[in-house]
Amino acid sequence: MSNQEFPIWEVFIRSKNGLEHRHVGSLHATDATMAMENARDVYTRREEGVSIWVVESKNITASNPENQGELFEPAKDKAYRHPTFYELPIELKHM
Amino acid sequence: MKIEDLEKKFQDRIDAGEKIEPKDWMPEKYRKTHIRQISQHAHSEIVGMLPEGNWVTRTPTLRRKVGLLAKVQDEAGHGLYLYSAAETLGISRDEMFRQLHTGKAKYSSIFNYPTMTWADIGTIGWLVDGAAIINQVMLTRTSFGPYARAMVRICKEESFHQRQGFEMILTLCNGTAIQKEMAQDALNRWWWPSLMMFGPRDEESPNTEQSVKWKIKRKTNDELRQQFIDITVEQAKVAGLTIPDPDLKWNEERGHHDFGAIDWSEFWRVVKGNGPLNKERLKARNDAWDNGEWVRDAAMAHSEKQAQKEELKKAV
Amino acid sequence: MKDKLYEYLLMLGDNSMILGHRLSELCGHGPSLETDIALTNISLDLFGQVRSYFQYAAELKGEATEDSIAFLRFDRDYRNVILVEQPNTDFAHVIGRQFLFDAFHLPLLEQLMKSNDEMIAAIAAKSIKESRYHLRFSSSWVKRLGDGTEESHNRMQEAINHLYPLVSELFRETETEKGMKELGIGADLELIKESFDEKVKTILSEATLEIPAVPSRQTNGKTGIHTEQMGFILAELQYMQRAYPNMQW
């Protein structure tokens, strides 16, 4: 019973409506209620946010950096996904 | 890939200004060094709460009360951010606490000095936070991502700490003779320990080269110390205080201030645990931890009970 | 009327100040970093309220400042209830004291928001959000400790046994409070008591704790009769202003 460590939680904060939640840091808490209280006390002392998400770290599945090549490099040469790939006459100012 | 190639590739990434993230491959020494440095940094924040915390119940005004409380509280927050950064390297916060509580881990020696008067609080803000900021601004660009991000957050929040301290000192210096004397006395006691905060002289700092390679350091201890002295001399002038170093003078040729010899025997004495308050500081941290044990156990037990209740509800 | 209002402001401000002081003693000594930060947040909220009340009180009185009111009165002139000067015996006492005060403070502020005195109404409107969070925080910790381990349960029950007899003072109306109530400036303590009793009953029962059947104590902090604790609190609180009078800080 004793010396059991509190699980780690990740905290995400929406700084104002219209923006996405962003990861701001982590903390320790026994459960979601405490994680929410702690997140408020630790990470919003300077009006940093209007909404908080907390998620226990162990519930996050992260990509493996060793797979970086196969995961992300294939996207590199797909220039045709970007608008600049397509040529338009200079006279056309807006598109 | 052979280990040397991995290490070479790793160093190339750092040299190219890339950040290292926790799950990336890293040399074992990089991991260990970062765990040690980040946890020491975290411990310094937490132990650093104690000398200033001494005075929160005795602030002379309400305005000073909220300012000081907020500052000491920030230090708890900064400790927390730093412990979190170290945890990404595979060490738990509780383990780091154990290292602190058993005296295995170090923290900044400056916090082993006593806060005897109200002027000490202003002086800590001015000098100790001033020295810390120089170090921390440099660390916002360090190679390990979580450490750099924690430092960005900390620097943003700490910007008021030094101003608060200097404002306190200026108020004393513009006050009565007793107050000014109090400020001078505090400066006399904190000046040399503040200079020691930057660590031993470069020739006695064996890890500097490696730290520079990993961008944990971008300047050497002596360079940072010099930078601090040059800035602080000007501030002392504004306050009308005398820096307690008869050898301190502007060196036109170097473009820096020359300063007197630092008593390194004192530095090592305090680092090795024989400073004025090493034992008291550690005891305070141990007490807080030990007295909190039943509270932490209760919180764990409660949340387990709640989870069981949830399970039962679902089963019905 | 002005004197009564001044005294009423002292009652409001002193409760927040002495409780805030007790919490500030814990800064750096909490059971975890997160709780350390949380308790200091509450302390800061309370001192913020103190400043609002005392700045207003200073205006009423003339030739006074928030600091002369906070730091330069004699013990008999402090108007806080005995509950808030209770020491930080252990974390259960800290949480118990906080919970009982919050359960009183929130309905008090709800009424003060409608005060005929615009300043008080404004201060209450700002403070109520803080108080609502304090109550949420302290309630959840009462439940954690009450329904946690055997040790925490016993400690929490012991704390409640010690503190609960002191709550009767919160609802024993003084002349000042009566006067303020009649003018529509102050709160009606009877109404607060209903809400208080309800909240305490619910939370303690969820926490598997019992409301002690011990008799209430006849304490009179609100008229300036304090416990031995108060001298020690004031010794620290007033130290600088007493040792170095008439200086700017």
Plain-language structure description:
The complex is a heterotrimer of chains A (about 100), B (about 325) and C (about 250). Chain A is built from two helices and three strands. Chain A has about 100 residues and is of the alpha+beta class. A three-stranded antiparallel β-sheet of chain A has the order 2-1-3, with helices on one face. The longest helix of chain A is centred in the middle third of the chain and has 12 residues. Chain B is an all-alpha fold and about 325 residues long. The radius of gyration of chain B is 22 Å and the shape is globular. In chain B, about 45% of the residues are buried. The model of chain B has no long low-confidence stretch (mean pLDDT about 95). Chain C has one domain: Up-down Bundle (Ferritin). Chain C is built from eleven helices and no strands.
Topology:
The complex is a heterotrimer of chains A (95), B (316) and C (249).
Chain A (H helix, E strand, L loop, with lengths): L7 E7 L6 E8 L3 H12 L7 E6 L11 H5 L23
Antiparallel strand pairs in A: 1-2, 1-3
Chain B lengths: L2 H13 L12 H26 L8 H26 L5 H9 L16 H22 L5 H29 L3 H20 L11 H6 L7 H19 L9 E3 L4 E3 L5 H11 L3 H38 L1
Antiparallel strand pairs in B: 1-2
Helix pairs in contact in B: 2-3, 3-6, 5-6, 5-7, 5-9
Chain C lengths: L1 H23 L8 H29 L4 H6 L19 H22 L5 H29 L3 H14 L4 H4 L3 H8 L6 H18 L21 H10 L1 H5 L6
Short structural description:
The complex is a heterotrimer of chains A (95), B (316) and C (249). Chain A is α+β, with helices and mostly antiparallel strands and 95 residues long.
Largest sheet of chain B: 2 strands, antiparallel
Outline type of chain B: globular
CATH superfamily of chain A: Phenylacetic acid degradation B
Query: What is the multimeric organization of the chains shown?
Result: heterotrimer
Radius of gyration of chain A: 21 Å
CATH topology of chain A: Ubiquitin-like (UB roll)
SSE order of chain A:
EEHEH
Q: Note the gap between the termini of chain A.
A: 65 Å
SSE string of chain B, helix = H, strand = E?
Answer: HHHHHHHHHEEHH
Radius of gyration from the alpha-carbon trace of chain B, in angstroms:
22 Å
Shape of chain A: elongated
The largest pleated sheet of chain A is described as: 3 strands, antiparallel
Number of separate helices of chain A = 2
Strand order of the largest sheet of chain B: 1-2
Based on secondary structure, the structural category of chain B is mainly alpha
Mind telling me which CATH architecture of chain A this is? Answer: Roll
Mean pLDDT of chain A: 91
Helicity range of chain B: 55-70%
